[in-house]
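General statements about sequence and structure are easier to judge against a single worked case. Part of our work consisted of pairing the sequence of a single chain with a tokenised description of its backbone. The amino acid sequence and the backbone structure tokens for this protein are reproduced below.

***
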Amino acid sequence: MISGAHVIIYSRDPDADRKFFRDTLGYPHVDAGGGWLIFKLPPAEVAVHPTDQTQSHELYLMCDDLDAAIDALTSENVACTAPSEERWGRLTTITLPGGGELGLYQPRHPRATEL
């Protein structure tokens, strides 16, 4: 019935952020026309969290080794916050060239992508 998902990241500098996903992260992509790149993401999961606040959606990238990922990103001049230890994994935040932020974490929970 449903064959995929499409994630949208809003950006103040979409060209810089597209270049980041293309060149720094090396994500394969298609050009939907006029340089509008759509990227293939790694396997993904969806979790539903409770809230009493305004409902929103977030995107976190996952990795197997957070320290190695931070080292690779900082070697490409990507700003990452100091890792924090959470109940569910180790977390950093990546600053995108357009000024937005993405979470990056090494999960401690079972991964649905391994089903």
